[in-house]
Amino acid sequence: MQVYIVMGVSGVGKTTIGKLLAKKLDVPFYDADDFHPSANRKKMEDGIPLQDSDRSGWLETLANKISEWEKGDGAVLACSALKEKYRKQLQSIPKEDITWIFLHSEYETILNRLSARKDHYFKPELLKSQFDTLEMPNYGFHINVEASKEEILEEIMRKLNKKNKPRIGLVGLGVMGKSLALNFASKGVDITVFNRHVEELEVDIARNFAEENKLVYEFPWFDNLKKFIESLERPRNIILMVNAGPAVDMVIESLLPFLEKDDLIIDGGNSHYKDTIKREGILKKEGILFMGAGISGGEEGALKGPSIMPGGPENAYNRAGDLLEKIAAKDKNGNPCCTHVGPDGAGHFVKMLHNGVEYGEMQLIAETYHFLRFGANTTPLEIAVLFEEWNKEMKSFLLEISVDILRKKEDNEFLIDKILDAAKQKGTGGWSTNAALELGVPLDTITAAVLARNISGKKQERVSAMDAYNREFKSATDIQKISDDLFKAYKAGSIINHAIGFDLLLEASKTYEWELNLSEIARIWTNGCIIRSSFMEDLIDILKEKPSENVLMHSDIISLIKASEAALTGIVGQALQAGYPLPVLSSAANYLLSFTSGQSSANMIQAQRDFFGAHTYERTDEPRGKFFHTQWIDN
Ligand SMILES: NC(=O)C1=CN([C@@H]2O[C@H](COP(=O)(O)OP(=O)(O)OC[C@H]3O[C@@H](n4cnc5c(N)ncnc54)[C@H](OP(=O)(O)O)[C@@H]3O)[C@@H](O)[C@H]2O)C=CC1
Ligand SMILES: O=C(CO)[C@H](O)[C@H](O)COP(=O)(O)O
């Protein structure tokens, strides 16, 4: 293996650069000074220049070591090697197996550096004798050190013509992993990929992926974790794109034996934020950094530019944030839709809530479609035309794909009519509801959307109940009559759904002290993610102006909602009367009315609680915080 000798006068930076180079090349580093016999060290400390007779034993020791290192893993040696005859003595292995890296600069530059060094036994006065002794080699790489450490290292690497090891490795070549790997490569980020190899089950996933893409990109691929880790630049950055839950723990556990202090794991899946907090804590004890980064955009977004919501320690983001920013979508000003959202579980909380809002928006479109399709006897194509019109204003990704869905035909029939009406879910919507329950805040529309999926799953029961209740899908209206109001209702429902979502973020930010920047979160959701829309653009300013208020309290939103409220409640009433459920629209209407009711029904709740359980109540004619109990009936 190659031995690299970083040489030059004392103070030129041999040790610093040598260590960095060794790290980069992943070989051991040695300092020639550490091999001096104590007599030599003493002379140097006393400012007595070494004679050639002093050096000869030391050079012999080093020459033996060089042969040893060459037979082993190779090495970087920092050694002054000022005279040609010293270098000759060190040349104990074939010429081509030693690379000489000569660091140099002006006498004054080095003198200034040495004068600043307090903890080194070399006295600045000896520098003059070093310059006198120096016989510049007319071979090797000559590197002027009047540059930053990083620049010096880069120059050496360029001269060595050594390609840097990739800065990032990806585990999990599923739907998202493959797209992200291609995205990294297309942005010029070298990346190595890993997928497990399970005989007869998961065979050659990584090899096949590299093979399929070899004409365009070179993916170093692995199904051996140790080799995968070794392929990466130190400290390592590893992104996991595996299924949320136990798979993440299993993968982390299998990575751990090969990781070192300061390595970083980024979990890019939809993990629960509490798992992320727990994992970060466990890994911190091992000196490993951990970031939970929500990634939204589905398969296509991951390929072309997703919205990325990384949370975790700031130093982790400082290290790898640029890699994530490179692959992220860009907002309208060209800035990456990726920002360090906050510490510990903040990234995955924000992603969870993103998905909660996504559930609400999806259900809004679904129930609007359903009322139009059956309540207004409209064809999928007619609904597509209407939604397309609405989307000129909404610019919603979900509405846009719904138009494509409604137009899709199979065997000359609309595919939407053939899809079973039982929705699946992986949990992030429900997690949002749980989080709202824990934080004691409302989450009406999102919860209604989750529960709408739950009831849709009871297909057989619904069919039987429809029969038992003699319910029919009757046409109750027509598209012309309702389209204007339906649009206003849909738009108001969407605004309320967003307001509810951001309100949960606000509460979480306060409770967990995450200092979430809601305007910045809206900004990174304007492109790449599933809930991008023109309203998200508006939210950047709304949330900048009033960062700690419910979106529904912004003056522009108040005007907008006031103008749509009648349509919202009217459509909900009309649909319910005609026998069509609108779970999210009706919960949006209910939320709006509750939110804007100075007098709620909760006085009755408090009275009931006090009646049966002596739970006490506060009074309107007494200050808040004073509690009362009444003996409601005479015994
Ligand atoms: N699909 C989407 O639209 C989005 C998904 N996400 C999230 O991204 C993550 C990945 O999703 P997606 O790519 O769709 O999922 P896939 O099911 O397509 O891929 C999962 C990957 O994880 C690997 N894996 C699973 N279990 C293990 C294990 N125990 N050990 C090692 N590897 C394992 C699989 O390997 P193998 O092939 O060997 O089974 C596969 O490479 C999930 O958390 C998901 O919620 C986030 C945004 C959008
Ligand atoms: O994260 C995503 C997009 O941002 C996933 O596509 C989303 O989680 C799908 O979730 P579900 O299966 O629960 O509908």
UniProtKB/TrEMBL annotation:
Its EC number is 1.1.1.44. Keywords: ATP-binding, Gluconate utilization, Kinase, NADP, Nucleotide-binding, Oxidoreductase, Pentose shunt, Transferase. SMART domains: 6PGD (SM01350). Pathway: Carbohydrate degradation; pentose phosphate pathway; D-ribulose 5-phosphate from D-glucose 6-phosphate (oxidative stage): step 3/3; Carbohydrate acid metabolism. Residues 347-633 form the 6-phosphogluconate dehydrogenase C-terminal domain. GO terms for molecular function: phosphogluconate dehydrogenase (decarboxylating) activity. It catalyses: 6-phospho-D-gluconate + NADP(+) = D-ribulose 5-phosphate + CO2 + NADPH; D-gluconate + ATP = 6-phospho-D-gluconate + ADP + H(+). It holds the Pfam family NAD_binding_2. Transmembrane segments: none annotated. Catalyzes the oxidative decarboxylation of 6-phosphogluconate to ribulose 5-phosphate and CO(2), with concomitant reduction of NADP to NADPH. Belongs to the gluconokinase GntK/GntV family. Belongs to the 6-phosphogluconate dehydrogenase family. NCBIfam families: gnd, PRK09287.1, therm_gnt_kin. This is 6-phosphogluconate dehydrogenase, decarboxylating. The gene is gndA.
